[in-house]
Design a protein that fits this description.
180 residues, alpha/beta, Rossmann fold, 2 domains, two-stranded antiparallel ribbon, 16% strand, globular
C-alpha cells in the first residue's frame, strides 16, 4: 500500500514566494561576502588556496558555516545582517484575533519590513514557538488575545526575555535596529 506523502499548503503561492526570497537571500549573502573589503594579504591567501584546492567556497558551505557558528540547542540564530526575514510573526489562534494579525502584518509590510508569517491553523502555540526558534529569524512577534489588540509580544532569538509593544512602536524599534 502506497503511503500518502502529499503535503497540503494553505496557500501555494506563499511557499513559492518563500522559496524565491530564500534564493535571493542566498545570492545576496554570497555577493556580500565576495565583495567585502578584505584585509591586506587575504586576497593572496585566498588565491593560493584556490590554486591548490579545486573546489571553492560555495553558498552551501557558507550557510553551513554560519549555522555552525550561530546556533543554540533550539536551532539557528541568524545574524540580522544575513537573516532571510526581519521578523517572524506568530499568530496564536484565539477567536477574533485573525483581523489583529492581518492588521499587524499589513502595518509591518507597509513599513518595508520583511516578514515570515506563521498563520498555520490547528498547530499549538508551543509548536509555533519551537519552529520559530528552529528557523532562527532575529525577532519573533506574537499576536494573541492575551496580549491585546494593536499590541505584540517582542522576543529576540537567543534571548528568553519578552516585551510588549504597540505595533507602531515595534515598527520604529525594528527600523532603528536596522540602522545600527
Amino acid at each position: 500500500m502506497k503511503k500518502n506523502t502529499k503535503t497540503t499548503v494553505k496557500n501555494p503561492n506563499k511557499l513559492e514566494v518563500l522559496i524565491f526570497k530564500f534564493r535571493v537571500w542566498l545570492a545576496n549573502l554570497l555577493i556580500r561576502w565576495a565583495f567585502k573589503i578584505r584585509p591586506k594579504g587575504v586576497n593572496e591567501l585566498l588565491q593560493s588556496m584556490q590554486d591548490s584546492i579545486m573546489y571553492g567556497i560555495g553558498v552551501t558551505r557558507l550557510i553551513g558555516t554560519l549555522v555552525e557558528i550561530f546556533h543554540d540547542e533550539n536551532g539557528i540564530i541568524w545574524p540580522r545582517s544575513v537573516a532571510p526575514f526581519d521578523v517572524h510573526l506568530v499568530h496564536i489562534e484565539d477567536p477574533g484575533t485573525e483581523s489583529w494579525a492581518k492588521k499587524t502584518y499589513e502595518k509591518l509590510t507597509d513599513a518595508g519590513i520583511e516578514i515570515l508569517w506563521d498563520d498555520r491553523e490547528n498547530v499549538s502555540a508551543g509548536e509555533k514557538f519551537a519552529d520559530a526558534d528552529l528557523i532562527g529569524i532575529p525577532i519573533r512577534l506574537v499576536v494573541s488575545s492575551k496580549i491585546g489588540e494593536g499590541k505584540v509580544e517582542w522576543k529576540r532569538r537567543g534571548s528568553n526575555e519578552t516585551e510588549m509593544f504597540v505595533v507602531d512602536e515595534t515598527i520604529k524599534k525594528i527600523l532603528r535596529s536596522r540602522s545600527e
